[in-house]
Amino acid sequence: MTFSHYLDASSASPQQLYQLRRQLRTTSSGFPALPLDSEKSEKSSEVPLLRDPERVPSRGSKFSKGSSTSTSNKEGLEEIFFSPFTLLLVFVPLGAMSAQREWGDSWTFVLNFIALLPLAKFLGDATEELAVAIKNDAVAGMLNATFGNVVEMMITVNTLRSRKMPYEERTSVVKCTLLGSILSNLLLVLGMSFLFGGLTQVKSEAATSAVAGEKEQKFAMKGVIMSMGMLVFCCMSFALPTLFAQGYQSDAQDLLDVSRFGALLVASAYIAFLIFQLFSHKHTLNQEEEDLKDEGAEEDQERPPLAIWLSLLMMVVVTVITDIVSDYLCESINGVTGAMNVDFLGTIVLPIAGNACEHLGAVRFAMDDKPGLAVGISVGSSTQVALFVVPFAVIVGWMLDVPMTLDFGMINTAVIFFSVLLVVVLMSDGRSHWLKGYLLMLAYTFIAVLFWNLPPKVM
Length: 459
Fold this sequence. Notes:
- One of its GO terms (molecular function) is calcium:proton antiporter activity.
- By secondary structure, this protein is mainly α.
- It has one domain.
- The protein has 18 helices and 2 strands.
- Helix 4 packs across helix 5 and helix 5 (about 105-135) packs antiparallel against helix 12 (about 310-330).
- The protein is globular and about 60 Å long.
- Mean pLDDT is about 75; it is low at about 1-15, about 30-65, about 205-210 and about 290-300.
């Protein structure tokens, strides 16, 4: 099976998408990646509808054909933990010590923030291994929806139940964090991918225009259009409650009712999204993938995934530690807001904790002339946060009796609307180059400066 076949991920199931993401782990850990087939690369930029690409066997990797199943657990653990992120685990006990011994909120926040970076990576790795081992698309889709966003979800829960912040500040931090997660993927990650992908040395014919030196990268639009349509729907679900609250001076209970009903509708859209990909159009999409296969190509065998019990054990341990660390982080937010605007903290700083590893991988894919994968990670991640984590936050607030609504405020709503609009316009031709990336990064920088200078409690 050739690399061009692997890259057609718009029709890939969640199980295949998890396999694709395993290459992201290998790539970000420093293992060599398989080079692009120049003759097929124009077909190789299909974009996955969900957030994570399929694993590609690494060139020269010890996990290629002939690997022994008896040593797969050892090899899998080596692949996961032989990473620069492992060194950051030292901040886990340091963050706990800072919270327990009261070193101060600033130290507690910084140490636990850094500690979340490796924990998010290892939790994602364990989830991928379990999804591949189970070999069930429906289960893989559920794992992707839950554990794929567990850091954002834990920050949401721990912030909403924090007793050190008033209700208004809790909901403000949560809304800004979710907004920031969407923006960082749509603008920063996609912008960096387009910029560095457009400036790196050309490696394939598909990445070169007719004029020498004018490099462009191509990606298929099917997955992008579907994901962007979902994001526009989410923008509408944010804008309508905001206009309802700001324009009509509505009662607080009426706004809560509208937001909770809207959250259920958005969640149902995500469920429909999964059903569309996993069941109703599964064979149609798979047939499209079959059409891109290279006949007679030699298939590579991947390393077997970790044993189910080992993946489950790793998930449980890392989840418990992540919950503790995120709790320390959220309890220290109130002490940090004196030096940093709450809106800037939530929108710009906190989203880094759960997405840093994927951000680096997306940029690496673009630099390797694989723009479809970079687009799939950035746009797919934004879609998943908007469709799943945002309604999750409203429902959790409902359960905790915290007035979490879909009223994101006029500024936040305008920011997300124009960001989605900018991305739709720049991606409408299915091509990317460095100028598009530069514009996206400028937009993100402008938004960061805006939130840094917002007065307190402006939403």
